[in-house]
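R.M. (postdoc): so does anyone remember the format we settled on? I'll just put the structure tokens first.
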């Protein structure tokens, strides 16, 4: 009986000591610098609509909105084939504020002091009638253009490039500033 207690105590001591063997000795650097928002390059960094509008104004970037639902087969195909493409991911993460809005969601957003659900935003503000639907907004949040339905990767890259390079506005340069 004493041998068994002794064995249990030894096992307990060993098990408590093992995690410390794997702990890093230099933990000061992680505590000193605040964590930064890291851009993931293997997937799109989707934001909510209300946060995306604020970020677009601050960063002077266009907004790309993906209106989707969980039951939409074409939305799932877009996720699998187009929104997994490295070029699409790169353009959306670096040149746009990518936003996702679930057309069936009752999630409440605070848009410039007004409360609205994603469902009502989808239906009443953007008039979405089918999924997927995509909207482009200017950096100030004003509506630019829209298209609906599945679009292959090459189409999406052309559309994103057209908007990011301000080709829709012949008075602007690539960085969004007025030509002289």
């Amino acid at each position: 009986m004493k041998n068994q207690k002794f064995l249990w105590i030894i096992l307990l001591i060993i098990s408590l000591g093992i995690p410390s063997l794997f702990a890093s000795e230099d933990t000061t650097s992680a505590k000193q610098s605040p964590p930064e928002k890291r851009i993931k390059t293997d997937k799109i960094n989707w934001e909510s609509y209300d946060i995306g509008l604020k970020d677009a104004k601050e960063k002077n970037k266009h907004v790309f909105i993906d209106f989707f639902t969980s039951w939409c087969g074409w939305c799932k195909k877009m996720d699998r084939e187009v929104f997994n493409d490295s070029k699409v991911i790169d353009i959306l993460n670096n040149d746009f504020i990518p936003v996702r809005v679930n057309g069936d969601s009752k999630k409440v957003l605070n848009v410039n002091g007004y409360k609205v659900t994603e469902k009502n935003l989808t239906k009443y503000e953007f008039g979405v009638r089918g999924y997927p639907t995509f909207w482009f907004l200017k950096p100030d949040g004003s509506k630019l253009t829209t298209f609906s339905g599945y679009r292959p990767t090459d189409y999406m890259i052309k559309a994103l490039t057209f908007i990011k390079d301000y080709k829709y506005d012949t008075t602007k340069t690539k960085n969004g500033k007025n030509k002289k």
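R.M.: ...and that's the designed sequence above, right after the tokens. Also worth knowing: DSSP finds seven helices and six strands in the chain. The domain at 49-164 is CATH 3.40.30.10 (Glutaredoxin).
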